[in-house]
Amino acid sequence: MRSNSQSATLLVLLFAGWSSAQQFVCPEKNGYFPDPVQCDLYYHCSRGVAEEKLCPDGLLFDDSNPSHERCDTSVNVECGERTELQEPKSTKGCPRANGFFRHYDTGACDKFINCIDGVPNELPCPPGLVYDDSASTCAWPTESLRKDCIQSKKDILEDGFSCPEGEVTLPNGRTQPHPTFPHPEDCQKFYICRNGVTPQHGSCPGGTVYNDVSFKCDDPENVPGCENWYEDEDKKAKKS
Question: From which residue to which does the signal peptide run (predicted)?
């Protein structure tokens, strides 16, 4: 009886797939085309005949090029109105067999899980970032939709400085991994934010001042407002 039941179930599934493929109208004679409602379902059209195909669980069909058969993670696929998905094939640690997911430890905001064929792999975010599962990527806490991961307490130096949120871009367009910021009163001094989150004091060599445009120590004449810094300091020293 069990064998007959399994055979009947298989026949139902095969018929459902055949029926769905029969209803799908190939937009072109050959190519790979998305199902109109299910994002991980697609069709291979050959000479105008459609064959139903399904991405591995957790992956979505990329319909950007009809000539290529490609399933990818949600980060790289725009589903649009194709909102339905197959039933998840979850395993321990993996809500679906493939994809990026929030860490099972709710306090581990800076980690996430990459599932491959149902096997979970723990990965870290870059320093200072948290995993944002709404975008399946790591982001600054203030830019993430995970409000539970916004740091309530920041490192603050004795003079009140703390590292600002967000990235700092260098003149060449690259992101500064350890951004620097000018001191509000001392042209020679500056602040360093290690990994963008931990503040430290910095100081330029004698005779130079911090340039907040180039993010480097520079000659005083190249930094507006600091041209006479050392002359003024000498005057202060003589008066004292």
Answer: 1-21
